[in-house]
Amino acid sequence: MSRDRFERAVLAVLRPVTIAVLFAVTAFPFLYMVMLSVRDIQELILDPGSLLPRRLTLAPYADVLGRQGFLTFMRNSAIVAVATVAATLLISIPGAYAVARLRFFGRRQVHFLFLAVYLFPAIVLAIPLFVLFTMLGLRGSLPGLVLVYIAQTVPVSVYMLRNYFESVPRGVEEAAAIDGCGTLGTIWRVTLPLSAPALMATGLYTFMIAWNEFLFALLFLVERRESWTVSLGLSQLAGGIEIPTTVLMAGSVVLTLPIVLVFFASERLLTEGLTAGAEKG
Amino acid sequence: MTTRERTLRRQEGRAGLLLISPTLVITLVVVVVPLLWAIMLAFQDARLINIRQTGLLGNYTLENFTYVLAEPGFWSSLVTTLVYTVAGTALSIAIGLAAALALRRRFAGRTLVRAAFLIPYVAPVVAAAFLWEVMLNPQYGIVNTWLGEPIAFLSQSTGTFLGVQVPVALLTVIAFEAWRYFPFAFLFLTARLHSLPADLEEAALIDGATPTQRFRHVILPQLWRIIALLSVLRFVFTFTKFDDVYLLTGGGAGTEVVSVRVYDLLTSRNDIGASAAQALVLAVVLMVFLVIYLRFFSGAEEERE
Question: Can you tell me the distance from the alpha carbon of A23 to that of A152, in angstroms, rounded to the nearest whole number?
């Protein structure tokens, strides 16, 4: 057998094996998460090896949302995430437009600043912010947390939007300017409507960061249970032994599901937006 | 330039600064100023109880640094951090590359497989870590029901595997890192593979190059740049990562990375100065590694050209 034939034969086996193994290790844990969340804890203890629940029950969900307070945590997470998205977009849209279109003093240095913020370790910033929030009595308050998230997401958001704004034809904007639009008017009436997919993608990206974040939530909110986010709530309750694993698994599903939905919705939306633009030429 | 043009140009400059200023203000207030303050705190004897008395000026000392550097466990935690980072980075990129190559050709169900690959990266870290904890639990974890003898993956610092001593918990944490971040490399590499010109590979195919030869001599050379970028990004992010290790092991069983020490100094011991010093040491070590890497890499780049 020639080397070429041999290699092809090996790869013909190796490729599906790689796909199958990776698919198993990525999909199975999350399927297992769902399956654990719909059974009674006794079943898990008596028969830890079983995959499918013998008797379906939604009791873990009722328990985690009601008694354990996950409804409150979800409300907190939603408030924090939505506020972060709104504020980040509000701040980064003009910023991105400026970097994409306008010549101003220090335009080149701005990129360096953003890269530095993006790469800078959060653990170093956590210390002074923790001290500051303690001194100001802001620990336990959601607006303080939102402020930190805005600063963490604005650089990437500006970067993402800038790339898109640069692809908006200059001529359309110039036409608006000739028709008497000011800079803000041009952004509002021309650039933004043309950039809807990019705005959506950036907003969803910001939402994911704010919903998933753990370190700052832990540092700022841990003493006030009524302000916990879902991430923080799950991590705190998982540390104890009182709450059954199946109930906590229901909590994990509640934490994970919105973000997975948001991600796959945005992925489709993004490709749809791009192909729609291509059809029009 | 006429006067009118100059005025327009000046207007543009003013509008630019005005539009970028909210971005700059928030980065300044929440990132730059706190960073400077962190540096000052590292040189002061600051604790949460006496923080109001610690002024901006005066009482600067190197004590925090001598303290954290001399503390037992610091150097070993630095080594742990390095092992964790290098292994996690290398594995996540290698698996990401394998995944991107395997999914290159179209097949039925590719969209579903692709979606599954991305979930570990998209899912919240708290949920992913908890899921691993449950699955690896020695009493009721499903993975341990498949094994002959249960292994305490996350709380056992060493064990023997085929007669060799291995750091069990550290390897588990590294595996988690590879599992969680290979989608990141997968996404980047898939995008790059997608944009490769087809004619190069076709030419190699016509010249009789075997699949591995095509990979080695045609595809890989075009991927080096993106792999180098991924290495830097993953190294930087993993080196200072806190969430994953803290949630999985709390820094126990031989997995104590430096960022977990920073957190412990800050919260359980309330020693702000030492915590800031520890964090700065971590950041400086990271910068040293980056500089060495960039030197080495740009040197290699020049040689190739």
Answer: 32
